[in-house]
Amino acid sequence: MSSLLKVDNEIKTKVDAFRERITSEAEDLVANFFPKKLLELDHFLKLHSFLQDPIINISDLKEIHSEINLTVPDPILLSNLHDGLEGQNAKKRKMEDGGDDKVTGTKVFVMPGGMMKSNGNLVDLIEKVKPEIRTLIEKCNTVKMWVQLLIPRIEDGNNFGVSIQEETVAELRTVEGEAASYLDQISRYYITRAKLVSKIAKYPHVEDYRRTVTEIDEKEYISLKIIVSELRNQYVTLHDMILKNIEKIKRPRSSNAEALY
């Protein structure tokens, strides 16, 4: 029994140390990291260009266009079929093949110019934005855990501060979900663009497929800019919400709360 109690005490000590670490980290996130990050993202949105970094604020969407290196093959000239044996044989071959008059496209075994590259400008921008999304998710998770650990045991009455804590946790959880959806959006862009490029390889003579790829690229650029704006806004909202209610969050059933600053 004594050995069991000793293990329990060791575990309790480690848990207490974990709680203290989460508390210290979360308070620093709210007080310092959140405002620093929102200012950083706001500055990023206002820049038109900067050395060795992707562009997030351009005046002409043509700047993010990329060349589709798939040439249009020469047209195949078909001789006119006349009535008679030649026409009958052609009709027979058509029936045997089960074909009709629709265009079946070109079989693609290899890209003539090598691997079809992604839009380099957007890839650079995506690789810049993705770490920001991941950072927001991770930091929200830490702050959410901190607030949850501050929620006192359930009692009758005097639960106004507890309701504020629960609303804060709900807001943090919502931000986490929205940030995760941004990653899904990026994945869908790559899949959609890949399907369109495959269509161009199969139907290189159809101009609308090429234009659609350009439209998809422009749409993704606008979406990425909106994502960065939303990340900034979420930092602003969380920072403001938590600081305004910090007393009730830290001490939901006490009026003697300590501020972060």
What does this structure look like?
By secondary structure, the protein is an all-alpha fold. Helices cover 67% and strands 0% of the residues. The protein has 6 helices and no strands. The chain has helices spanning 2-46, 85-97, 120-150, 160-202, 207-244, 246-250. Helix 1 packs across helix 5. The longest helix has 45 residues, at 2-46. The protein is elongated, with a radius of gyration of 30 Å.
Radius of gyration, rounded? 30 Å
Secondary structure tally: strands? 0
Helix content: 55-70%
Structural class: mainly alpha
> Quick one: biggest sheet?
none
Contiguous uncertain segments of 5+ residues:
256-261
Order of helices and strands: HHHHHH
Distance between the termini: 45 Å
- Overall form: elongated
Mean of residue pLDDT? 82
Total DSSP helices: 6
Beta content comes to: under 5%
Question: How would you describe this structure in keywords?
Answer:
single chain, 261 residues, mainly alpha, 6 helices, disordered C terminus
Layout of helices and strands, plus pairs?
Layout: H1 2-46, H2 85-97, H3 120-150, H4 160-202, H5 207-244, H6 246-250
Helix pairs in contact: 1-3, 1-5, 3-4, 3-5, 4-5
In short:
With 261 residues, the protein is mainly alpha-helical.
